[in-house]
Structures are given as structure tokens and as C-alpha cells.
Amino acid sequence: MYKFQPKKPIRSFRDLEVYQKTLECAVIFSTDIKPQLAKQHYDLLEGMTNCALSIPLYIAEAHGMRFSDFKLAVATIEKSMLGCNKMVVYLEQSAGIYGNKIPTDMLLDI
Questions:
Q1: Which bin fits 41, alpha (ψ -120 to 50), beta or left (φ > 0)?
Q2: Eight-state DSSP code of residue 14
Q3: Residue 8 maps to a domain
Q4: Which domain range does residue 87 map to?
Q5: Total-model pTM
Q6: Is residue 50 over pLDDT 90?
Q7: Which InterPro entries does its entry note (predicted)?
Q8: Whose CA is closest to 30, among 55, 13, 12?
Q9: Fewer Cβ neighbours under 10 Å: the N or C end of the chain?
């Protein structure tokens, strides 16, 4: 049987689960994946780093402007969704290119 638990009220962007998860992924990328790709001299590493770090930033920005400029907030959320899609492509490309040189399980788990 499923036990219902109400979620905590959202007081700031830090309470948003989507922010927490994307921040966690950005940290995992920066600490675990980025150094391994740097050893392989991955050409797209700078773009990948910017993409990973910008996703939680866009979520925080959109949360802050949701009442002042709703259309801009939605556009900013769409930027974060675009960043998520780009990051998936970056991770899958690096797993395909360096699959035998770096552990791909972490790349594909994120």
C-alpha cells in the first residue's frame, strides 16, 4: 500500500527537486567525469562543462523571475531543458568515443 506524504513547501529554488538533481549531476560531472575526459583530451570538454553547470543556474534564474516576467521565466526553463538534452548528447558521444578508456556506467547513469 502506498503511504501518502505531502511534499515540503517550496521556499526557494533550493527546495526544487529538479534543481537538487541537476546540481548533483553537475557536481558528479565536474568531480568524476571531467578529469577522466581531460586525460583523453576530449575536444568538447569546455562546452560540456559550461552546459553541465548552466542547467541548475537556469532553473534558479527561472524560479526567481517567475512572478516578475513569466514569459521570460518559461523561456529560461526551456533553456535548462535544452541544456539537459545537450548534456545527454555530450555524455552519449563521449561514452561512444572513449567507451573502452573511461568507465561508461557513470556517463550513462547521469
A1: left
A2: G
A3: no
A4: 13-32+39-109
A5: 0.86
A6: yes
A7: 23S_rRNA_IVS_sf (IPR036583)
A8: 55
A9: N
